[in-house]
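Exam review. A common question shows you a sequence with its structure tokens and asks you to describe the fold in words. Practice with the pair below. Do the first one on your own.
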Amino acid sequence: MRVSRPQKAILWTVFLLMSWVVAPMIGAENAYWAYQPVTIPDIPSIKDQEWAKNPIDTFILNQLEKNGLFPAIPATKQALIRRVYYDLTGLPPSPEEVVSFVNDTDPMAYSKLLDRLLASEQYGIKWGRHW
């Protein structure tokens, strides 16, 4: 039986694709990180227990401490509102919005601000320009 040139190309393509799929399952390729089982690492110890709000913060602070570094101080509420407005809408906040945010004692004030800006028309306009 004679195999035509297009059939050879198809067979060769199938062979290559199969080898790419099967090769990682054989031998040393199993050492690749993506083929390892998922494990939960131990949470490292840190000096400043108050800074870490969640386990991810603990990993970050552990590496900072190993390198003799420390986290930046938290931004003021005035700086936060300006950063968020410029990042999400490209516009500065009005003075009234700054005063309102700074005086808001609700622990969820920042989250509410983010939700409001993400739902704003200006957010869509700014990010629509990237397309």
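Now try the second one, then compare your answer with the model answer below.
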Amino acid sequence: MMGELIKKYHRAICAANFLHDIERAGTPMTLNHYLNENLQNCWNGRLQKKWEEKAIDAQTSGLGSSTNGASEKMIRLKDLQRQNNIGTSGHTLQNIHDILKCYYKVACRRFVDNVCMQASDHYLVTGLEPPLRLFDPAWVIGLSNSQLEEIAGESTTTKRQRLRLRKEVQDLESGRRALVE
């Protein structure tokens, strides 16, 4: 039986290794729409950060005021034009970094989901031949007393302690009866 269990666990490990190999050696690609969403958020976040550095308070600069009394931030057009002077190589480097960062964010989630669904759940719990199916009622009925004892029996230490406690209870019971008589 142990051999069968090991085979089933080995299949799950092989499935996890297969998924790992695909992610590591395969072509990085995804059809997940979250890649585009993450890229947009990344690019918008970078622009937002740059614009916040150049933003000025509208009230203190005399450019305008808010209707509710709160301070509003504004950006001058000339500051926006100076914003993107990073050069072609810098822009390319940022884009590559952003694409890789966003791709691996999506790929990592996909990998974790696939390992959970395929290697763990399918091969170990709910699939056609998970290890738990080895322990069906027919298998348990077919076990000998020694096999049952080996699998579900108490340890020898526990058995000795149980015998010692039974003897102690009998001795105490005998002592109580002697006192009553």
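Model answer, second protein: Residues 59 and 68 are 12 Å apart (CA to CA). The first strand starts at residue 56 and ends at 57. Full marks require stating both points clearly.
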